[in-house]
Structure formats: C-alpha cells, structure tokens
Specification:
Diaminopimelate Epimerase, Chain A, domain 1
C-alpha cells in the first residue's frame, strides 16, 4: 500500500502534467475497471483543465458493461468520433501503449495501469503502473490523496471496477483492493450495483453458450473452446469466465476469429500455488505471432490471420482449435496435479472412483420412510 506521503507526491506529479488550457482525452479499452478509472481521472481534473473527453476503441457488447454505462450515465465517445489533434494531453488508463495498435494514433502523456509493464516501460511524461488487482484501486488512492469525497456515481463505478477485475477478490494479493473497496462502499449505491451485476447475458448469447457446451475440450483441468462463428470478443470473455466456474476447471482458453485476426482469451483461477501465470504463458505461447500478454489470472492474444497462414496448412476451425491447444499446452508448465474430480466431457460426467472420495457415507435410511435413521443420542459415560 502506498503511504499517504507517497500518494500525495504521486498526485502532485500527475497534476503537474496539466495546465488550465489543456483539452484532455482519456483513452481506454472499455471495460468496468477502465471506465471507472477514467471517471476518477475526470474528477481529479475537474475545473483544472478546459475540456475532458473519455473515448474508447473497442465495441461494447456485454450487458453488464452496457448497464453500467446507462445506469451511471457515463458520457463516452468512440475513437471514430474524435480527432487526436483536438487534444493537447492524452491519458491512457487501465492499459498501456503497446497493448493495442489503436493507441498509436495519439501522443500519450500519462499512463495509469495495473497490468505488467513492457520491459522498456512507456515513454510518457508520467506513468504509474502497479501490480494491484484493479486500476480503480490506484485511482481510489489518488482521490483520497486529493481529499476528494467520491460521488455516489463515481464510488459505484469504482467498486464495480474493483469487483470485476479482481474476480470478486478471488485473485492473489488483493489486500489493497479490499481496503479500497471498503473505503468506497459507504458512498456507493447498493441498488445500482445490484442492477448492473444482474445484467450478465443477453438472449442472443444463449446460442453461443449452447455451442460452447457442445464442443469444449477438457485437458489437464483446462477447458479449450474455439467458437465458430465468433460474434465479438466480449462473448469469448463471457465463455471463458463461465467455464471457470466448473469445479474441476482451473484454466480456460477460448478463441475465435474476429475479422482479420484470431482472438484468444485465457483465464486462470490462481488458487493452486504460484507456478501458473497465464499472462506469461500467453506471451510465450504466441511469441512472434502477434500481441499477447496479461497478468497472472487473465490474458489475451490477438494474432493476424495473415501471419497464421504461414504457420498452418489451412484456416479451418478445427485446424485453428488444434493449433491453439498445442501452443498453450507447450507453454503450460507441469505441476503436481490435485486429486482428480469427475472426468468431464461434452457428453457427460463419469462417476467419481470410490477410493478418492473424501466424504463420509450417508446415514442409513429408515425402512419405508425414505429418510435417515435417527440414532439415539449418546449419553454421558458412553451409555446409549
């Protein structure tokens, strides 16, 4: 956790980048954490610069993200509706310049993010990259250092950003995120949070879930799924998160072709020790084929199809699916396996062998009742 003095020092360094005449663009890849962080930056710069615009480059399909934007009345623009030369300063939140080629059109001045940095680091006037669970947690520190009491809308957004990026605090090392959550919670709206969280799926998504349940492959506690056709990257993320809820699944790899690129979403529970890091795994598996990386529990790769044509005999769905499985398996370290659970396939579940059952046998049933036999309570002295 950053000390109060350090937080105020970082705040002063951040604010020194701006002058009152600045027209500021806050750029992002839209998701709850980045949108909430952008709102926090906007609040810090309120009345300190002449104009602020929040803009994103990616399509937004997920119902919870759309509900967050609608219910919290968050003003956003797409990159297509803005011109970089209209802004004197650009702030990039919850991402870094090398994460997406769309950012190359801007001269970025500030980077605030929680993902692992590139080896050389961003070439900007000010950067704050920390290994927190969410960028929203970093922004909570800035708000506290500035003495800003967050509005209900801002607090709700930041809490939802922390909740989503930490997987409801299921990733390792989330102590600081929990502290930020508790600090913000008194100012947030529980009703708005409930409404945002309940908007998880559209009717149209059910068909893709059905296809995923029909065609997934399970190997070494990892679900692989190549979705064809693939509607959008958000659907791939939804499926990766969905399969991670299965009891014997520790990792998911969901891929799909979107336009001229193959998008691969990877998720990892992070509960079996520290030998797995899907961010490093993605970078190793798809090195030289496109952009790939992330953090310990979540990663993404985007590979141009033109590059894959040189690697594969064809670009049929089954060929791509086998390629992804092979690449991930080769980069995945071997580690001690946990006791096996039921063998899961798309066709069903095999029974658990008796010798690995850790549960006591159920009590006997009383004849003719269908209920358990109630044994008399043992009296003191061991008599019955």
């Amino acid at each position: 956790m950053t000390s109060s003095a350090d937080a105020k020092k970082k705040l002063a360094q951040l604010m020194a980048v701006f002058v009152p005449e600045d027209r500021v663009l806050i750029a992002l890849t839209a998701d709850p954490d980045s949108i909430a962080s952008a709102l926090a930056v906007k609040r810090l710069l309120w009345r300190k610069v002449s104009h602020i615009t929040i803009a994103y480059h990616n399509p937004i399909y997920r119902p919870d993200n759309l509900a967050m934007i609608r219910l919290l009345k968050i003003p956003l623009k797409t990159f297509r509706r803005i011109k970089g030369e209209h802004f004197s300063k650009v702030v990039l939140v919850d991402s870094q310049p090398h994460h997406n080629g769309e950012f190359a059109q801007f001269k970025i001045n500030v980077v605030i993010d929680h993902h692992p940095p590139a080896p050389q680091g961003p070439d900007v006037m000010f950067s704050d990259i920390r290994s927190y669970g969410a960028t929203s947690t970093i922004m909570e520190e800035y708000l506290r250092a500035a003495g800003v009491r967050p509005s209900e809308r801002l607090a709700t957004a930041l809490i939802y950003g922390i909740r989503t990026d930490t997987g409801i605090f299921t990733i390792p090392d989330v102590q600081r995120d929990i502290e930020a959550f508790l600090s913000l919670y008194p100012y947030a709206s529980a009703g708005l949070l409930r409404n945002i969280q309940s908007s998880e799926m559209r009717i149209a998504d059910i068909n893709f879930l059905k296809e995923g349940l029909r065609s997934y492959v399970l190997r070494r506690n990892c679900v692989y799924l190549h979705l064809h056709p693939s509607p959008n990257a958000d659907t791939l993320v939804q499926l990766a998160d969905f399969f991670l809820k299965v009891d014997t699944v520790d990792m998911t790899v969901v891929s799909g072709v979107l336009g001229d690129r193959l998008v691969i979403i990877m998720r990892y529970l992070g509960q079996l020790g520290r030998w797995n890091n899907v961010g490093k795994m993605a970078a190793e598996a798809f090195a030289g084929l496109g952009s790939a990386g992330g953090r310990r529990t979540a990663a993404r790769a985007e590979l141009p199809l033109a590059r894959l044509e040189k690697e594969l005999d064809d670009l049929r769905s089954d060929t791509i699916a086998a390629f992804v499985r092979k690449k991930v398996a080769s980069a995945r370290p071997r580690h001690p396996a946990r006791p096996p659970g039921p063998a899961k396939t798309a066709g069903g579940t095999a029974p658990v062998p008796k010798e690995i059952s850790l549960l006591p046998p159920p009590p006997p049933l009383a004849p003719g009742t269908g209920g358990p036999v109630l044994l008399p309570e043992k009296k003191k002295g061991g008599q019955q």
